[in-house]
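Listing S7. Sequence submitted for prediction.
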Amino acid sequence: MSTSQSSKIWPHLKNRDAERHVRFWLSYLLMAIVVCSAACRSVDQQVTENNAQDILPDQEAWNTTIYLSRHGRQEATIKAGHRLYFSETNVTVMDEGIYVEFFEEDGSLASTLEAERGEIDGQTHDLRVRGGVTVHSTERGTLETDSLTWFNAKNLIVTDAAVRLTGDKDVIAGDGFEADPGMRRYIIRRNVKGRFLPDAQPQ
């Protein structure tokens, strides 16, 4: 091969080597970015899990009864399947079924409440419940909703959720509800609908 021919081929080979070199480093850089991203996500997940593990209850108990009173008078008894108490937030969390008894001023039973889970504010003694909430009053009937708050200071049960109130003679539904625990006096705030039960309609 002549010198002139080799001088023409050599630059071509050098260009191909350069292209291979660039492709190698681009591939390496791309792999490094992917590995770094995966590693960063793993670290973030570990940090989140560690933070979650750091929030531990100060007390834990099963099948317990909690008594709530105001001005020395018992207003509610709460039975919980599982209870966790967090001193930092002063909150009691109940996550395995809740059964509540509300009492009148004379000590008689006003109503009962059942829910899947809830929490008690240790400072105000307010009770918030969620999941399949049912309140049964011997005076008014049964209230059904998905969330509810009992405000201890006002002795009121309140919700902004949809409600259904079934009595002996009628069914009333709507959005938003406020009442005393015995539901003798109540307010349904919006979208009120009602109907008489078939066996209670006038003849």
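Caption to Listing S7: primary sequence and predicted structure tokens for the chain studied. Residues 3-54 form the longest helix (52 residues). The chain has a mean pLDDT of 80.
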